[in-house]
Specification:
By secondary structure, this protein is α/β, with parallel strands linked by helices. The protein has a domain at about 1-130 and about 160-185 and about 250-260: 3-Layer(aba) Sandwich (Rossmann fold), CATH 3.40.50. The protein has 13 helices and nine strands. The strands form two sheets. Strands 3-2-1-4-5-6-8 form a seven-stranded parallel sheet, with helices on both faces. Helix 1 packs across helix 7 (about 165-175), helix 8 (about 195-205) crosses helix 13 (about 265-270) and helix 9 (about 215-225) crosses helix 10 (about 230-240). The longest helix has 14 residues, at about 105-120. The radius of gyration is 19 Å and the shape is globular. The structure holds NADP nicotinamide-adenine-dinucleotide phosphate.
Length: about 280
């Protein structure tokens, strides 16, 4: 049995589809609201919340492989419960910032989870993706309501990744030999700036998307409301305020692991256009 956490999320949704398409055997998808989740036929929808410690053991019962999205819940407790339940292999979604910005709070947290996993006695594969294409969903309401998209660091291009490519790598790591004890830095196939992202969405919609660059202070005010001040600073550093060559590098890991080239940003836009209409 494979347990997929974050099963309704950007990566999890794709991963369930990948596992189903490849006939990966029994799969359980964890969600806090099974009635709202629509999983592929044959995937067992399992309702559970990481905020409830009693939910862990039943969700892990019979599970041999775990896809764990870091920092959704108390990772130390989750890994301990997984070990106790007899999980053999954990594929963990961490972040490329453990390589590029290890001093930042979120990266330190991810690094701590990676170390717990490596010391757990279970086999592990760590995925360290760069910025997701789906982060542009933050703009969706502005675009739908014809308001101006206001973004800092408008001309800083990052090798943005399609979450389906993270899922594709996860599927291979979960179901094929040769990926245990490996940490994969994952990027998209090209760097794309926020201005280019807005232009790609505009082109797909066939109408103008008003766009303006903001200063860091305005962006920090907005992000802080959702994430808190420290995490907002971290996001701003890794999206333009303090980028480095490691973060900007386009890598071929997705292609090497999956055999298929990483998907470009415009493909994600085409698949998710309804969110912006
Ligand atoms: N966004 C980026 O640019 C970026 C870059 C690098 C790394 N990452 C990492 O990628 C991960 C996020 O992946 P994602 O975008 O696929 O996630 P996501 O779309 O944010 O989805 C996460 C899912 O987790 C579930 N969830 C949330 N709280 C939960 C709880 N208390 N108990 C159980 N389930 C819970 C939710 O499902 P339900 O509502 O159905 O319960 C949600 O759909 C994070 O670890 C992040 O650090 C992100």
């Amino acid at each position: 049995m494979i347990l997929v956490t974050g099963a309704t999320g950007n990566i999890g949704r794709s991963l369930l589809g990948e596992l189903h398409a490849h006939g990966a055997g029994p799969v359980r998808g964890l969600t806090r609201d099974a009635a709202r989740a629509s999983f592929p036929a044959g995937v067992e929808a399992w309702e559970g919340d990481f905020a409830d410690p009693a939910a862990l053991a039943p969700a892990l019962d019979g599970v041999r492989s775990l896809f764990l999205v870091s920092r959704l819940g108390p990772d130390a407790d989750i890994l301990e419960a997984a070990g106790r339940a007899g999980v053999e292999h954990v594929v963990l979604v961490s972040s490329i910032t453990v390589l590029t910005h290890p001093h930042l709070g979120p990266a330190r947290e991810n690094l701590a989870v990676e170390r717990l996993l490596e010391d757990s006695g279970m086999a592990w594969t760590v995925l360290r993706p760069t910025q997701f294409a789906s982060n542009t969903l933050w703009w969706a309401a502005s675009i739908r309501e014809r308001r101006t998209v206001r973004v800092p660091y408008a001309d800083t291009g990052l090798p943005t990744i399609h979450p389906a490519d993270i899922a594709a790598v996860a599927r291979v790591a979960l179901t094929e030999p040769g990926h245990r004890g490996r940490a994969y830095a994952l990027t998209g196939p090209e760097r794309v700036t926020p201005r280019q992202q807005a232009a790609a969405i505009a082109a797909a919609l066939g109408r103008e998307v008003p766009f303006a660059e903001t200063g860091r202070e305005e962006a920090h005010r907005q992000l802080s409301a959702a994430l808190g001040a420290e995490a907002a600073d971290a996001v701003l550093d890794v999206t333009g305020g303090d980028v480095n060559d490691e973060l900007l590098a386009v890598r071929d890991t997705v292609g090497k692991v999956t055999g298929a080239a990483a998907r470009p940003f415009h493909r994600w836009v085409a698949e998710n256009l309804a969110a912006f209409r």
